[in-house]
Amino acid sequence: MGKMMSRQTVDLFFKRVMDILLGVAGFLVTTPIMLVVATCIKLEDGGPVLFVQTRTGKDGKLFPIYKFRSMKVDAKQQNEYGKGWESGVPDTFIFKEGNGKNPCITKVGGFIRRTSIDELPQFFNVVIGNMSLVGPRPEIPDITCYYSEEQKKRLRVKPGLTGWAQVNGRSLITNGEKMQMDCHYVDHRSIRMDMYILMLTVKVVLTFRGAV
Fold this sequence. Notes:
Blueprint: H1 2-45, E1 50-56, E2 62-68, H2 107-114, H3 122-128, E3 132-134, H4 141-144, E4 160-162, H5 175-188, H6 191-207
Parallel strand pairs: 3-4
Antiparallel strand pairs: 1-2
Helix pairs in contact: 1-2, 1-3
Keywords: Transferase
Family: Belongs to the bacterial sugar transferase family.
Pfam families: Bac_transf (PF02397)
């Protein structure tokens, strides 16, 4: 038991070091892209460049997540969650639906969503420590508040910029499939697995697989 705890502590230490080093590197390398995107967003409609939303992090702690704004300034999303969810979020539920033709999405927004560029500001979340490079994607509180005890397992680790579910379907998978993959990550996480997921993420992003 002691050896297991010691290994977990070492893995967490190196994971945090990797998050800081690669997070800072990723932020610096993508800064030119982010400046261009920020300029395009501002020129399109004059609205704010960033979109800040509350998400659920490790152990249910709430935190602000940063994204490039992809929706129109006056867009109003009508989402109703919780109907018939007394036993947890249904396995058939899909958070992101649609084919990218949502009229509330701006022209720039459509492009940065397909390419995942809208998520680049989250390198800041990784560096400050409320996210990791790899982990289950952070969900909104309106959904996590309905998690069953079993589903809360995915909240035992820091949410990630990318994860096992993201390299195996992204927005195309159901909640049940996502939960299964996220729990698999929680049970088998390691530095080696994180590096493997990061390599697969590059392929997924470049091919736009599962993007909406």
